[in-house]
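User: Can you help me understand a structure? I only have the sequence.
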Amino acid sequence: MAKQNVAEQFVDILVRAGVERLYGVVGDSLNPVVDAVRRNAAIDWVHVRHEETAAFAAGAEAQITGKLTACAGSCGPGNLHLINGLYDAHRSMAPVLALASHIPSSEIGLGYFQETHPDRLFQECSHYSELISSPRQMPRLLQTAIQNAVGRSGVSVVSLPGDIAAEPAPDKAAETALVTTRPTVRPGDAEIDRLARMIDEADRVTLFCGSGTAGAHAEVMEFAGRIKSPVGHALRGKEWIQYDNPYDVGMSGLLGYGAAYEATHECDLLILLGTDFPYNAFLPDDVTIAQVDVRPEHLGRRSKLDLAVWGDVRETLRCLIPRVAEKQDRRFLDKMLKKHADALEGVVKAYTRKVDKHVPIHPEYVASVLDELADEDAVFTVDTGMCNVWAARYISPNGRRRIIGSFSHGSMANALPMAIGAQFTDRERQVVSMSGDGGFSMLMGDFLTLVQYDLPVKVVLFNNSSLGMVELEMLVAGLPSHGTTNKNPDFAAVARACGAHGVRVEEPKDLPGALKEAFRHKGPALVDIVTDPNALSIPPKISAEMVTGFALSASKIVLDGGVGRMLQMARSNLRNVPRP
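Assistant: Let's start by predicting it. Here is the structure, written out as tokens:
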């Protein structure tokens, strides 16, 4: 039996850690590892067209499955291309192991061709980034990297020179047990008791929820019902907390809607549950705030805290609910539910008026029809920019759908690569990439990856020939838009030239049929929809500075955005409000 080399041992350890795919682009220093993957039936090499796509795809797969995933780049420029997708995965707390292959070990530090120092370059976007300098070092170092990625929910980077990857592996390398799942964290009794007292003493409590409420929907609903609290959410909390929620008051932040802003500012006690909400301008500074988070470094870094609780949201609420007295007064909750419904009623009119005749097509209408036609367990990957707005306001979660995007890192061009990673986890599950024309064209080369692997991703392209969110930013700043226009091809024709299904939609009446046809198609498909570039959105709370900026721009722009089926939910929730 031939002796294993380091690359084969490396791949074997990845397989033992549950990794099923290695996304990347082959080349020179990476070749020993790619060859080891070729000869290992338990893992596949996914050949993408750009390493940034590899990192985004791995991050998306990790978010869908909750398991460790992996990507790789060859020395120098190859692994440098990983960095943007790794930043996104790390900030999304996705467990990803990145292999940055390296120049020959004897040449490190001597200005060799394509020389970089990946062990240094990736430090800011990883929990762990180290260089393997000896075959004997590899198994323990890779194990440590895996446990950092899994245990701390983020990225680990291993730099491996190509010559070391090809060397014989040491005999009798220890097969240490690998950590592949994370434990739950329960707060101490003192913190739980103190939080319970704060809740009992408050007349008006609001819950604001983030992605840390994943798996805790039932507990949050029971808790909100017990203390008669409105429940708002951040964008990353939408998929986990908005559905089947009789206490929903919408979302706060730059993409927000409804009464979440008012609910967080008019309460006596605001409880932040599993959210690292980045916009402190939308958080109050004159109410009592408690925060529950499993990541202690997140506690208090956005706003002043009166109580920091280190713990998993679900376990914390399971301990807390029995210790909290049930509140009887629901006037604050009912007031916020009515404000929420009224706010949604007002903005829905803006996109329903003559929507079936408006050309270019309202993007709100596109998102609303997409929400109605997509599968109940669909995965939506969302480009940064205005697609974030339409997904936040129109895509209805139900506990089975997933909505993922570059919500913390805010990178362009993320939706298509993320759709690749999501689709590889389950070829039978519907995956929809909500792409903007700017983001799609940035990494358009990896549409070919869909065709090469016959991945049935459906790209719904919001084509307004502009960088819409950037235009909005300029308007808010009082600047005329400049450098934001895209001269685009017929993307549907491009898709057909690549060997995929492609259709272009310019009339609203053609939209439902085009989406249904794409969804029925067995392979990859692209629906190029010409949308109104003047459809912009504003946050739920507008400052004087923002108003001044818009006035200086002197532009007539559609500022209102509807909220689709969320209005139906708000109306339904109002039925529970007692009538005098």
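Now, to help you interpret it: The radius of gyration is 25 Å. DSSP finds 24 helices and 19 strands in the chain. Let me know which part you'd like to focus on.
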